[in-house]
Amino acid sequence: MKKIISSIMALVMVFSLVACSSTTKKETKKETKKETMEVEKKVENSAEKKYTSVAIDDKHAIATNDNKTFEIYELSSKYHPKLTMGNKYEFKIDPAKIQGNKLKFDKELEMLGVKVGFPLSIQGYQKLTEKVKNVKVVDTRDAKSFGEKTIEGAINLNGAEALKAVASKKLANFKNDSLKDFTSKDIVVIFGKSPEENAAVAEILFNVSHVMVTFNGGDIKEVLK
Q: Which superkingdom is the protein from (predicted)?
């Protein structure tokens, strides 16, 4: 009798374990399906985002999709095997590869409301210098402030004088021997005491020295801290 009872109890335990295992598998499948759906949803949403960008070399572009923050992306497209530095492109993200497809070139495309001197945060500046070599820095403050303390390797172009030249629409009136040190292949980040003066210097660099890629870094004090 004891043997029969023991056998029955053993069978009950086996059935219980099988039932638990089956339930666990079903729950795991549900969780996996839920996670997959969430990932697919994220991918789908990300793929719909349209980014505007400016090429900083033949394969990297600095881009924004919210007109507030910039990220640097490596882009590739069968239509644009190599990017043209300074050209502006629109693209959509492929989340799996983090690469752009169907790049749309638009010479007049604006980012953050400007065509040159794109606003760049300190974090954006740090990312840029990490990804790209030989970024040139301009300090637009007066010669005295520049001489007291500046960013290592910075070039001084007076922002107040640049602002006057731009306002009068006489860019040739802005005289500075350092303008000859810039070329169309340069990537320039401009710092100073005011974004307006930085923007004026960016316009002069674009029109006089033909610098295609300029960024407005804002107040230099944020960098010199």
A: Bacteria
The domain boundary, picked from 112, 134, 163, lies at 112
The domain that holds 219 is classified in CATH as 3.40.250.10
Do 186 and 136 meet the contact criterion of CB atoms below 8 Å apart? yes
pTM above 0.85, yes or no: no
Question: How far is it, in rounded angstroms, from Cα 187 to Cα 88?
Answer: 14
The 10s digit of each residue's pLDDT in 127-160 is 888 888 889 999 999 999 999 999 999 999 999 9
Return d(Cα 67, Cα 86) in angstroms, integer: 18
Strands (E), 168-209: 187-192
Report the alpha-carbon angle 206-210-214, nearest 5: 45
The SS3 assignment for 132 reads: coil
Q: pLDDT > 90: what percent of the chain?
A: 32
